[in-house]
Amino acid sequence: MHFMQALQQAWTRNNSLVCVGLDPEPSKFPAHLQGRADAVFEFCRDIVDATADLVCSYKPQIAHFAALRADDALERLIAHIHAKHPGIPVILDAKRGDIGSTAQHYVSEAFDRYAADAVTLNPYLGRDSVQPFLDRADKGVILLCHTSNPGAADLQDLDVGGKPLYQHVAQIIARDWNTHGNCALVTGATWPEQLAEVRTLVGDVPLLVPGIGAQGGDVEAVVRNGCTADGTGLMISSSRAILYAGKGEDFARAARSAALELRDSINQYRKH
Ligand SMILES: O=C(O)c1cc(=O)[nH]c(=O)n1[C@@H]1O[C@H](COP(=O)(O)O)[C@@H](O)[C@H]1O
């Protein structure tokens, strides 16, 4: 199914704008999983199985797996999500971006090897670096626009011809690159005013919004500034605050409670 259709259906079916980020850090795993050969897969699988009716998407972060030599666990995890929770889109957070010939390999990595439904990209190499992804019309292409980190302002807020660079990025992508309707933008929850600007510039283009939870973003400001008129349009992502909500054998239940709390907190500010 087309990423955008799957996302819209998941927003509705689960009444949720929550995206759970899958960022495994074994040192934070509960004691009973420490040292187990397949701990990374088992931990993430249990989180997924405990939250799948509460989310609009999952977002595994590739470096968290690759650094642990757990690429194989990531492949199996995405296959597990597709098999057990069909219709929940998986965003591979890889922030790729390179010249066209290399980009083609990143396309294969994300969509053929990992079978992700969408991928995060850095747009700063320009359109030709993104084109091979855009051409996969059924896949989501999620481009960094105004990131959540403190240093986002260093470059993204620079004045370029009377407006900040990130606003050019938002406009160019929404106006020129989104010919297949498969683009989305990353705008951090920690920059609510910029989020509002981006929403104004891009119409109903979906926004991936990390920075809630561990990075301290404000849920109400994100929902009020970022939702579309129909009360959707956002994938509000949280990783650590959900994954590591509990430290014991009941960690998955604790993650479910944290995801439920986030979903309900978002929903109280949404217009339905
Ligand atoms: O593309 C991303 O997902 C991303 C963009 C951004 O601007 N900020 C950001 O934190 N992220 C990712 O979102 C996740 C945030 O994790 P938590 O702060 O634990 O919720 C990490 O995997 C980051 O790599």
UniProtKB/TrEMBL annotation:
Keywords: Decarboxylase, Lyase, Pyrimidine biosynthesis. PANTHER family: OROTIDINE 5'-PHOSPHATE DECARBOXYLASE. The lineage of its organism: Bacteria, Pseudomonadati, Pseudomonadota, Gammaproteobacteria, Lysobacterales. SMART domains: OMPdecase. Pathway: Pyrimidine metabolism; UMP biosynthesis via de novo pathway; UMP from orotate: step 2/2. It catalyses: orotidine 5'-phosphate + H(+) = UMP + CO2. The keyword Lyase applies. InterPro entries: Aldolase_TIM, OMPdecase_AS, OMPdecase_type-2, OMPdeCOase_dom, RibuloseP-bd_barrel. GO terms for molecular function: orotidine-5'-phosphate decarboxylase activity. SUPFAM superfamilies: Ribulose-phoshate binding barrel. Residues 17-255 form the Orotidine 5'-phosphate decarboxylase domain. This is Orotidine 5'-phosphate decarboxylase. Its EC number is 4.1.1.23. It comes from Dyella flava. The active site is at 95 (proton donor). Belongs to the OMP decarboxylase family. Type 2 subfamily.
